[in-house]
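Long-time lurker. I teach an intro course on protein structure, and each term I like to show students one example going from raw sequence to a predicted 3D structure in token notation. This year I'd like something fresh instead of my usual example. Would anyone be willing to generate the tokens for the chain below so I can use it in lecture? Attribution to the forum is fine with me.
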Amino acid sequence: MAQLMENDVFKAFTTYAAIVTLKMILMGPVTVYFRLTRGSFTNEEDVARKPEEEKKKLLRSHPDVERAQRCHHNDLENIIPFFFIGLLYALSGPELSSALLHFRIFTAARIFHSFAYILALPQPSRGLSYLLGMLVTFSMAYNLLSKVFFL
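-- Reply from a regular --
Happy to contribute to a lecture. Here you go:
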């Protein structure tokens, strides 16, 4: 592991993987914020201490809570593949400049995607940021497979 941490490409991957992981983790508190400020809960135990009449009002969905949850779900669908492909790509020995370009574009695209999702920015902003992140992952996969393809 110590030897890997001397590799600049691996260090870059570790840095950007940590950034997008923290961004993904922060979607949990964003969802909680919307639940609390919009009074939207889905579990009985979350409102157990409230009077019956208030429970009925609080046990409901809210568009802002659902939006935050969809954003978090989208992160899971995109960041987890980035980890696996990105790690293998980093270990395949790419040029540092190419690796940094891939990692930085993916990270920026995911951060922008979250802002576009939560703030409901007009399309195609969210769609383009999603597509850009996906293209980066596919580019890393292509570069990886073109180096190590073995059947």
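Some talking points for your students: The mean pLDDT is 93. The radius of gyration is 20 Å.
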